[in-house]
Amino acid sequence: MAGDCVFCKIVSQEIPTEFLLETEHVVAFQDINPEAPTHLLVIPKKHITSISALEDDDQGIVGEIMLAIRDLAEKEQLDQGYRVVVNTGSQAGQTVKHLHFHLLGGRSLKWPPG
Ligand code: 5GP
Ligand code: ZN
């Protein structure tokens, strides 16, 4: 738990937020500023700042995140497709320094991203 981290506060429910999915190491919730009809954030409960800060022992957590995304995509009926985005570092536009996977779907998505 990092004291000033907004996503740690969501995990601890200091900021009350509905979890659409919760597993041992992972929670998922709606993005506060959705960019698509479905825009969820899937995060580890553990404070990990980004992909770059992952440790070898975090392998299981990353796998759990991927399986959570699979289950959420099915739950949200994203059978036409969806996108998973992990902004990493300032040049990629990462604003919250707690690893999070954006799950975006429910509309046509442009490629490449800006
Ligand atoms: P980033 O720009 O770091 O890849 O994405 C951070 C995301 O977190 C943004 O899409 C932003 O809307 C979302 N976000 C920031 N603060 C909160 C919050 O307090 N609650 C929720 N649900 N989402 C947040
Ligand atoms: Zn955190």
Characterization of this structure:
- The protein is built from 2 helices and 5 strands.
- By secondary structure, the chain is an alpha+beta fold.
- It has a 5-stranded antiparallel β-sheet with strand order 1-2-3-5-4, with helices on one face.
- Strand 1 and strand 2 form a beta hairpin.
- The longest helix has 17 residues, at 59-75.
- It is globular.
- Guanosine-5'-monophosphate binds next to strand 2.
Short description:
This protein has 114 residues and is α+β, with helices and mostly antiparallel strands. The protein has helices at residues 6-11, 59-75, and strands spanning 21-22, 26-30, 38-44, 82-85, 101-105.
* Helix/strand structural class: alpha+beta
Hetero groups in this structure are: guanosine-5'-monophosphate, zinc ion
Q: Quaternary status of these chains?
A: single chain
For the residues shown, what is the average pLDDT? Answer: 97
List the secondary-structure elements in sequence, H or E: HEEEHEE
In DSSP terms (H or I, runs of 4 or more residues), the helix count works out at 2
What distance separates the N and C termini? 32 Å
Number of strands: 5
Question: How are the strands ordered across the major sheet?
Answer: 1-2-3-5-4
Overall outline: globular
Spatial extent as radius of gyration? 14 Å
